Amino acid sequence: MATYEGKVFTEEQEALVVKSWTVMKKNAAELGLKFFLKIFEIAPSAKKLFSFLRDSNVPLEQNTKLKPHAMSVFVMVTKFALLETIKEAVPDMWSDEMKNAWGEAYDRLVAAIKIEMKACSQAA
């Protein structure tokens, strides 16, 4: 059982994350695209952040640049969109326990990124 900033990430939570990720990683490119579509559904203005989407009349699902981009940044996510995407990817496995496990894994990832960013900015 790992402890990070006072939170406990149990072996059961880790097992749920690993089990569901094993299923999802086989279709990571498609899930990455679905993830971004979910973000744009939640916050349509987020499309303005991507120059290749701003002036495009092509439907998002058919944009040739979005899918590769989505694949490359699938792990750099917003929590709600990530959890919703996972819920849709493994509906038979989805439970409160899995939601909590992925939420905790996400929180740990964000915390680790923040620590790394802070270290990099101090070193520069």
Automatic annotation (TrEMBL):
One of its GO terms (molecular function) is metal ion binding. It holds the Pfam family Globin. Keywords: Heme, Iron, Metal-binding, Oxidoreductase. It comes from the Eukaryota. InterPro entries: Globin (IPR000971), Globin-like_sf (IPR009050), Globin/Proto (IPR012292), Leghaemoglobin-like (IPR001032). Residues 8-118 form the Globin domain. Its cofactor is heme b. It catalyses: Fe(III)-heme b-[protein] + nitric oxide + H2O = Fe(II)-heme b-[protein] + nitrite + 2 H(+). Belongs to the plant globin family. Phytoglobin that reduces nitrite to nitric oxide (NO) under anoxic conditions (e.g. during flooding or in waterlogged soil). May not function as an oxygen storage or transport protein. Has an unusually high affinity for O(2) through an hexacoordinate heme iron because of a very low dissociation constant. This is Non-symbiotic hemoglobin 1.
